[in-house]
Amino acid sequence: MPDSRLTFKEMCARFEVTPRTLRYYEYIELLQPEKEGRARFYGPREVARMTLILRGRRFGFSLEEIRQWLLIYRQKGTRPQMEAWLTMADRQLAELARQRAELELAIADLAALRDQAAAALEEPEG
Known about the structure:
Blueprint: E1 6-7, H1 8-15, H2 19-27, E2 34-36, E3 39-42, H3 44-58, H4 63-76, H5 78-122
Antiparallel strand pairs: 1-3, 2-3
Helix pairs in contact: 3-4, 4-5
């Protein structure tokens, strides 16, 4: 039976993260690899957690929010974790919508200023 564990280097390559990132996630207890001497090995649980961590980061959650969310599963189980997820997701969706509105306004302002500058360059110098 092949070993389903990944080495430290394989984990970095699979998730396209730096060794420093992987060590930091271990330090803040997001990941808990198996250790054999100085070697670290990541099983299916750690691979799944890393997938959730990176997805959470992509959605804009802090590492502490992700850590707390993952901790709920260990302490209370699936249902409370999913309830917490809904609360977190609703809050983050509202924040992303707010950021999108700010970006749309900034884009419109920048486009207007750009158009003004372009129009000024087209006017004959007087």
